Amino acid sequence: MEEEVKSLNFIEHIIEEDLSQGYSQEELRFRFPPEPNGYLHIGHASSICLNFGLGLKYNAPVNLRFDDTNPAKEEKEYVEAIKRDVEWLGYRWDSERYASDYFQQLYDWAVELIKMGKAYVDSQTSEEIAEQKGTPTEPGEESPYRSRSVEENLRLFEGMKNGEFEEGAHVLRAKIDMKSSNMLMRDPIMYRVLHKAHHRTNTDWCIYPMYDWTHGESDYIEQVSHSLCTLEFLPHRELYDWFLDQLVSEKKLRPKQREFARRNLSHTVVSKRKLLQLVESGVVSGWDDPRMPTISGLRRRGYTPESIRNFADTIGIAKRDNVVDVSLLEFHVREHLNKIAPRVMGVLNPLKVVITNYEEGKEEWLDAENNPEDDSAGNRKVPFSRELYIEQEDFREEANRKFFRLKLGGEVRLKNGYIIKAESCTKDEDGNVTEVQCTYDPKSKSGSGTEESLRKVKGTLHWVSIPHAIEAEVRLYDRLFTDATPDGYKDKDFMEFVNPASLNKVTGYLEPSLKNAKIGDRFQFQRLGYFNVDLDSTDEKMVFNRTVTLRDTWAKIEQKN
Ligand code: ATP
Ligand code: MG
Question: Which secondary-structure segment (H or E) carries 256?
């Protein structure tokens, strides 16, 4: 058998190159560095799969590092959610770290920089500093405080740390080059005063380090060999390197920042800030609303970790930002659930069928296969009786020959059961069919081996026995946004594209075996899609989510528009 050889992605090429030029495999170390200011989304899954995937591939440790330098936006709840999601995706970190663990070390290094004349306290307002920044084509202006003495800088910086100043009174800036063609090198801010309690360090600090000063130094402390981030950090690399240049000792490994493209998903937004807006405005019920592109939303919706990992693997990593169609994500969950989800029957839009030649009060428990894709899944029993539900859409009084479902005078097979024939129907005042009277062929029972049981009829319908059915709330979802790139317009806010019909709650009538289903359990409702038990389920009332339909109906709808 031929083994599938996967070609290396460009990050793996960089690593292979480094290995061939003196790095040893033991030196490799990676990290996934979320800011705990929201829940992880499907974009993060790409970064998680990349970093942890490299860890597995090179047998190298991967740290989970919380980039927690902004107490105004960060919370413990988010830390817990992030840990849960990474674990659920199937990855184990080597060590759980926090940038806040390094606040003292970072402060000490900042003092070193001041002593070297490479950092200074600026006492201008943020507006003044912004005005002096210049433009990409015009150089910036030097701050009047740039030439402060080392002593004064040390005294002021210590004062900042000790809480002697109001927010905004001073900042610490690196003294680099106000004429640099890279705007980020124009004396970037390293520290600002923030009188806010931090979720871990509480009120120990009232100055907080900025991202650029924190990230590379944290990588250095943890001896991360390859610090992989998204493309918007490409211009930051020069600054990342400049800070390291001031600190790195020859005996230690020098981390490398390398960039890959952000992954965006169509018909949604992948930005914690925007997702928070959806939560706070009440458009969704929370971060784990099954319509959300968050890992927790996808989990609640019924996605499997495997399907998300396979999706991330398939799209791989890229050097240019792009939008991946959500139907590819749906393809992967469909593919996985097809293999693992037991088949059951339920009716969402019921039409009553009475089998007039079936004895009243009689019931039979028919054999039904749980999963034709999985021999080990076994069988179950489904009850059959005189009164059944089928879907409204599966019956028409009259229809042409291409309609393989039930019509007057026509026959269909009831899945796992008998062949029935529609004899007549009853209608209400408005002409809607309210009941169909059928006869059944008692010898046609599926699997009974009789000649009649092998008789082929064109259509097979799913159904439930009315007296045995359990009623449940079934939540059907559509895209959360009506546009493929809701945040892709300059003149329009993404909130304008929220789909008002993204959630449809219906009552479903389900076969009684589902009574034992537990929260999270996944099923294929035959002909309707994949569903799971939502965490809103109680003993009194079960709630199901439709994870995904059996086929991609959306592509067709969009083509018509
Ligand atoms: P957001 O804008 O949603 O807050 P972020 O990049 O600020 O995203 P972080 O918590 O800082 O979020 O991200 C942790 C890691 O995940 C970073 O390395 C970041 O580059 C990566 N990441 C975030 N979003 C995506 C995405 N859409 N595709 C790929 N990687 C991503
Ligand atoms: Mg961020």
Answer: strand 256-260
Tell me the backbone φ, ψ of residue 163, rounded to 5 degrees.
80, 20
How many CB atoms are closer than 10 A to CB 448? 14
Residue 435: band (very low, low, confident or very high) from pLDDT cuts 50, 70, 90? very high
The total number of residues shown for the chain amounts to: 561
Q: Which ligand is nearest to the CA of 318?
A: 1
Single-letter amino acid code for the residue at 490: K
- Please spell the DSSP secondary structure of 446-485, one letter per residue: TTS-STGGG---S-EE--EEGGGPEEEEEEEE--SBSSS-
Distance CA 523, CA 516 (A): 12
What single letter denotes the amino acid at residue 16? E
Closest of 186, 221, 19 to residue 103, by C-alpha: 221
Question: Which residues of 469-541 form beta strands (DSSP E)?
Answer: 470-477, 503-510, 522-525, 529-533
Is 226 a pocket residue for ligand 1 (Cβ < 6 Å)? no
Q: Compute, in degrees rounded to 10, the torsion defined by CA atoms 396, 470, 530, 369.
A: -90
**pLDDT tens sequence across 130-180:** 999 999 999 999 999 999 999 999 999 999 999 999 999 999 999 999 999
Contact 188, 76 (CB under 8 A): no
Q: How many CB atoms lie within 10 A of CB 387?
A: 16
Pick from 298, 333, 219: nearest CA to 45: 298
List all residues 6 or more positions away from 369 whose beta carbon is below 8 Å from its beta carbon: 343, 377, 379, 416
CA distance linking residue 295 with residue 475, whole number of Å: 19
Q: How far is the CA of 280 from the centre of ligand 1 (A)?
A: 21
Testing ligand 1's pocket by substitution, the residue of 30, 32, 44 carrying the most ligand atoms inside 8 A of its CB is 44
In which element (H, E) is residue 10 found?
helix 10-20
Burial class of residue 191, CB neighbours in 10 A (0-12, 13-18, 19+): buried
Residue 238, ligand 1, Cβ within 6 A: no
Q: DSSP code of 417?
A: S
Q: Which tens digit of pLDDT belongs to each residue from 31-62?
A: 999 999 999 999 999 999 999 999 999 999 99
C-alpha closest to that of 368 among 413, 414, 415: 415
